[in-house]
Amino acid sequence: MKRRELRVGIVLVGLIVAMALVSFVWTPFSPTAVNSTLPLQPPGWPHVLGSDHMGIDTLSRIMVGARSALYVGVIAVGLAAVVGVPLGVASASLPRWAAEVVLRITDITYAFPALLLAILLAGALGASTETAMVAIGIASVPQFLRIARAGAMSVLASDFVLAAKASGTTRLRIAVLHVLPNIAPLIGVQVSVSFALAILAEAALSYLGLGTPSTVPSWGRMLGDAQTYLFTQPAQAIWPGLSIALTVLGFNLVGDGLRDVLDPQLREVA
Amino acid sequence: MLRGLLLRLGILLASLAAASLVIFWITQALPGDVARVMLGDGASPAQLAAKRAELGTDRPFFVQYGAWVAGLLHADFGTSWYSTLPVTSLIAPRAAVTAWLVGGGLTVAVAVAVPLGAVAALRRRRLTGFVVSAGAQVGMAIPAFWAGILLSMLFAVQLRWLPANGYVPPGRDLLGWAQHLVLPVIALGLVQAAVLIRYVRSSFLDVLGEDYYRTARSIGWTRGAALWRHGLRNAALSLVTVIGLQVSALIVGAIVIERVFVLPGIGSLLLDSVSQFDLAIVRGVVMILATVVLVVNGLVDMAYVVIDPRLRHQERA
């Protein structure tokens, strides 16, 4: 049952990634050319999912939209991991009071969930994909820091680290050679879960008009547009939402599945 | 215990101070010369100087920050840059709408999640348990704003039972108020319930593995009675923690849901102010929302100190 979760998750994520990759070389119609067909067509042929209010083929826009979602996810989660993991590992070998200070500082970010920070930054600097990515990334740093710290503390307490220390291995070498490989699975789970949250946050921001700019197709903005025409063509409000939900479901299932595969190891530290 | 409580109170106050500094820095220093942004490159030095004096940005940063915080302590959030009205007078009438939305959403989430989470734990090897768990997994993947759009598609556009958007104050028309809030509250609550179900399920599962549960069962208590007495209480404890963590998700969700259903809450005010570059309002609203999140989490921490003596000296993981 648990392996099945992982498998379904991998298939869903694989499909979305494949769709994004294919969209670089082929889409059924142009994803940006206005009035290539009649506006607000119902699903049918040749426009499988219909068309939007500007007469753009919806399937083509969904395919290109996968790129925006994954792009924001990769940069935001990458940023969070690159900042959070080294800080977490370093804080594991700090004295208790110093580690407490680090943790309390990261606690403050609880007051700024990704979306709120993104709105705040969009207000100060103007809305853009970059602002959204940075905001989502910063808001995800504490989770990585905590997971990496918890994992590193249990590794640092093990005998082989003691042996390495006794033989004169430097702290940095221990961190790179022993701690990082051992906490990699934990980080993998967190990457998957954070990816799901990042995609949800990006979708909400684009829906609010504060994320991906209107010139680039994104699922969130497609939903915003579709809502305006809910009375004329409700089908248009289905596809982008379904794409978001399936992508998020995929990443969550991969995260859960990985966690269960690694369970005995995780139960100790998480 | 008093020491533990005071420590938590100190941490809360320090977090509030830090959050206010971050918010003020982002909205006052990060955009650069706000006067130039507002007036454009064509403005003369005299106009710029006048604007800076009006906004107070000609003073040193920490003087400006101090003035803002001193105002906050008197519930004075400053003056709107755009309309020049007091920010407090703009926030106050809208806060109730958001409070109804968040409160309603939380109520729906708990009312749905506790029974379903218990079912998912008790029937975990049966089809019902699987269906609830799978449903929660799917629910977690649905963005609240899409749930809102789908609900208004069904109940407002197709069935025409409820209004698609808008708001009526409860004092004017109680029924209309309820009709306008039903869909937003359900959209916000159901998505949040999906997250809570998983926590409720796992805390009930923990209880099922505990000695006191086995003892209660072995001395002849029925499963229902043992769970009612022990399960619910233990689940409630972890539920309080989770709700603390979920407050930020509810607030963020409310901002988006207010936009979906065109509700005049402080989320809408925040978004409108962002598009008008009215950072005086933006920083006020964000400060209120951050304060709510921090205070709720601080209270959860303090409640734990009171309830559970083991946690008095333990680090919060």
TrEMBL record, chain A:
Compartment annotation: Cell membrane
GO biological processes: transmembrane transport
Keywords for the protein's UniProt record, in alphabetical order: Cell membrane, Membrane, Transmembrane, Transmembrane helix, Transport
Secretion signal span: none
SUPFAM superfamilies for the chain: MetI-like (SSF161098)
Membrane topology classification: Multi-pass membrane protein
Keyword match Transport: yes
Sequence similarity: Belongs to the binding-protein-dependent transport system permease family.
Protein name, UniProt field: Peptide ABC transporter permease
Species of provenance: Propioniciclava flava
Lineage, broadest ranks: Bacteria, Bacillati, Actinomycetota, Actinomycetes, Propionibacteriales
UniProtKB/TrEMBL annotation, chain B:
Gene Ontology cellular-component annotations: plasma membrane
A molecular function GO annotation: dipeptide transmembrane transporter activity
InterPro entries reported in the protein's UniProt record: BPD_transp_1_N, MetI-like, MetI-like_sf
Topological relation to the membrane, as annotated: Multi-pass membrane protein
Keyword Membrane listed: yes
Pfam families listed in its UniProt record: BPD_transp_1, BPD_transp_1_N
Protein name: ABC transporter permease
Source organism per UniProt: Propioniciclava flava
